[in-house]
Design a protein that fits this description.
Strand content: 15-25%
Radius of gyration: 20 Å
Strand order of the largest sheet: 1-2-3-6
Order of helices and strands: HEHEHHEEEHE
Distance between the termini: 34 Å
Number of strands: 6
Length: about 140
């Protein structure tokens, strides 16, 4: 850039060393995330925050209501080569932790949030993607 007084300022004099940017994908109430995945063009992303309102046993119900399962979130994370997948938007029917054999809700065994994490983990390449469950006040480093 040439200044009014004639001095020339070069980018290397004022700009630091470049660093890789981050791509963050936030998906809520997502029955089908295919178009979002196409928009990323296979370049990969740093983190995907994806809802997992239902378990894979309720896939039809999830899609009909515009929601996803842990399994669907895992498949999306694998497709976009996400480094981290953070599951969120859990249904009230899910307990914290893993499946409760003792707890009965509506005549069915209740699933735990960790069960949804396991569903997602079964779909991702563990050498590429780490799966987490969001919770109130949780922090995740990019």
């Amino acid at each position: 850039v040439k200044l009014e007084d004639g001095r020339v300022v070069r980018a290397e004099e004022v700009v630091g060393k470049g660093k890789k940017g981050r791509v963050v994908v936030l998906l809520g109430d997502t029955g089908n995330s295919d178009e979002v995945g196409k928009g990323l063009g296979g370049k990969g992303c740093s983190v995907v925050v994806h809802e997992a309102t239902f378990d894979k046993g309720n896939t039809e119900k999830a899609v009909a209501g515009g929601h996803s399962t842990g399994q669907m979130a895992g498949k999306f994370a694998r497709a976009v080569k996400a480094e981290k997948l953070i599951l969120t938007h859990f249904s009230m029917r899910h307990t914290t932790g893993e499946r409760s054999e003792k707890e009965e809700k509506g005549g069915e065994k209740s699933l735990g949030v960790e069960d949804l994490v396991k569903e997602a983990e079964a779909e991702v390449d563990a050498t590429v993607t780490k799966v987490f469950a969001a919770s109130d006040f949780a922090e995740f480093a990019l």
